[in-house]
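thread: overnight batch results

M.L. [08:02]
morning all. the overnight job finished for the chain we discussed friday. pasting input first so we're all looking at the same thing
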Amino acid sequence: MLDIEPRRVFYYFEKIASIPHGSTNTKAISDYVTEVAEELGLIYYQDDSNNVIVYKAGQGGGEDAASVIIQGHLDMVCEKEEGCDIDFEKDGLRLVLNGNLLSAEGTTLGGDDGIAVAYMLAILEDGEMAHPPLECVFTVDEEIGMLGATALDTSRLMGKTLLNIDSEEEGNLLVSCAGGATATLNLPILRRGAQGNRYRLTLFGFKGGHSGVEIDKGRANANIVLGSVLKDLLYEDDSLRIVGVKGGLKDNAIPVKSEAVIVTKRGEIISDKLPELLNDIKKMYEENDPEITYSFEETAEDEYAGLYPLDEMQSMNLIMLLGSAPNGVKKMSLDIEGLVQTSLNLGIMYTTETEVVMSFSVRSSVGAEKAELLEELDALIRSIGGRMSVEGSYPAWEYRKDSPIRDIMTETFSEMYGREMEVQAIHAGLECGIFSGAIPGLDAVSFGPDIYDIHTPSERMDVDSVLRVWEYVKRVLEKCTKIC
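M.L. [08:03]
and the structure it wrote out:
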């Protein structure tokens, strides 16, 4: 049991961590929220997607104030270290407290966005803090395209002010974000017999990270690097045929591992060439991704057992597609220094008996550039006989010149912290864009405590920051009883 302040916040965070809640696996965590609401005697709404809205009347002088929406998402990115035995479908996380940093043994922590859920549940049960009428919104499947927010019936919300707790840097207030979409490329494949031995090439040790927040950090994408390596190997060994490729679990996480099962008559050539290729790659990324490594071994049994490799032309097409696919930062903003304007990330890749599937997270704060990038991917996959589908498209969250809640947040921060709050735009997608598009006149902000290396097994949350932000939230809500 975590015995740290704020105790009720961490009580709920520990309960959340014990319930599997990866994207698409949110029924149990959604039901837990409704159980808490029932225990507290609060009215709630749960939809078929597992989104939940819990309503709480104003108190402490805020009974007649305008409603405020507090929002976060229930799902987490499930990544784990090599050898970790956690089954994200049925196991809870093993929390580890080291000094003032909370992490999970061998896995992502789910601070993104479990801390928002914990904050909201603690606020809902608190009978003493002053606050206006609250509409606490728990959405699902944010990490795979903000599907829950898109499906939510926002007519059930009365508030015109939104506090989104889904940022990971204390002292930063987000007031704008990019729009985006998930583009899935499907390449039909034809399998034929080929001579040679079967090998597995695995690239691992990549740092990874969030494909929005950290796309500009110069980190390597394991899937893209695999394509580059295979492309170079094909020049050395024209007998190389692909059996299957796979890498990455989430389109919005930079992949930390990628692998290919191949058939070749010249395994020794590949074995001799790989150290040179990987050495060149490590030099390219030595500053920002220094732990990249590989393994290459003959395999008798694998997940593609009984399947022939792709024929010569399709092996070549797949390798060239993977080796030339656009990825990473495409354009920086000319208006906001240091802000990525347009990017994409090949986050998921896998092979079935009949096709290769690649999933890209495409982001831009300029709608025309997002459309242009989607058209480029569509043309690329069509040129080799494949097709593209787009889902989870969401609008950009545009900056408001006049924002009462932004004024409250910055003034309160200055009073409590003795310094100015950083007001920023972000390249990552936030549900604020969905809500702003659905609720006319919505005044929204996003903030949160310090969480490091999200979407990776190195994720850590600063306990002291969680406490400070908790006190900050309470003060902000108190001010909302008088102003909102």
